[in-house]
Amino acid sequence: METIVVKKEAPLGWIYLNRPDRLNAINQQMIKELRQGIDEFLADQEVKVIIITGNGKAFSAGADISQFKELNGYTAWQFAKSGRELMDYIENVNKPTIAMINGYALGGGLELAMACDIRIAAEEAQLGLPEINLGIYPGFGGTQRLVRLVGKGKALEMMLTGDRIPAKEAERIGLVNKVVPLANLEQETRNFAMKLAEKPPVSVALIKLLVNQGIDLPILAGLNMESLGWGVVFSTEDEKEGVNAFLEKRKAQFKGK
Ligand SMILES: C=C(C)C(=O)SCCNC(=O)CCNC(=O)[C@H](O)C(C)(C)COP(=O)(O)OP(=O)(O)OC[C@H]1O[C@@H](n2cnc3c(N)ncnc32)[C@H](O)[C@@H]1OP(=O)(O)O
After folding, report:
1. Alpha carbon of residue 18 to chain centroid
2. Cα dihedral 184/185/190/192 (nearest 10)
3. Terminus of the chain with fewer CB atoms < 10 Å: N or C?
4. Is the CB of 112 under 6 A from ligand 1?
5. Does 61 sit in the ligand 1 pocket, CB within 6 Å?
6. Which entry of 2, 33, 111, 237 is annotated as an active-site residue?
7. Verdict on whether the full-model pTM lies above 0.90
8. CA-closest residue to ligand 1 atom 16
9. Which of 65, 78, 104 to mutate to test the pocket of ligand 1 (most atoms within 8 A of CB)?
10. pLDDT digits over 155-177, tens only?
11. How many angstroms separate the CA atoms of 4 and 251, rounded?
């Protein structure tokens, strides 16, 4: 891999965006390699949680602007589509994902973080969708995902001004889940990830599916999916273990079956 570093530390799988001299700008190669890195961890039963972060001072400053000069109408569409499809893929994987935002998360970098389930940011990080200042607009899903996370008013403000906001403000508006000093970021993220890694994987996968698919459905369809999914969780060994452990006053040991 040229643009990312993949590190297995079971039950965690770490992916480091690794173009620090370009502030981890996302090029076509990185889009391809991120998909490979994610797939490697999805196939690995020992990896329960995937964490994406950046090497150097940025999480990612967005799509690689130096590639934009070569784009025409058709290739721009294809480039945006390939980035956006990667984000769709990441959002819908059946293992929990965490974006550990170590610094700038801008444009496509923020769009990548928004495709993850949880965002934990360093106090020093800055977040934004500055594409408008390039005479374009967000192209990796930002126009749709930001509004779902923070509501229409704040989403429009961020996209129309292109201004960056500090991590604390991002936490206040619901864009990040947690903010910690940079020095504690890795440990806090690891603690959070370990908590998720202990949860029953079938419940995890179904909660993700119900939230991600349900949000775009008429509520009755989503509610019916929720009820139907109960038939699936109640057919798992983990459900028996969870209920027995509660009744026997002990900690459940989930096996993912
Ligand atoms: C999905 C879509 C459409 C998109 O994401 S479009 C891109 C949206 N992102 C942006 O507009 C952010 C662009 N970057 C910046 O504004 C500034 O780099 C920041 C983030 C404010 C940081 O500023 P500084 O700390 O002064 O660092 P700066 O010197 O600019 O960056 C370091 C290097 O990374 C390069 N770089 C930073 N962001 C880049 C990007 N998105 N694409 C390509 N190169 C980038 C930058 O050109 C510089 O290269 P060089 O050393 O050759 O001059």
Report:
1. 17
2. 100
3. C
4. no
5. yes
6. 111
7. yes
8. 61
9. 65
10. 999 999 999 999 999 999 999 99
11. 37
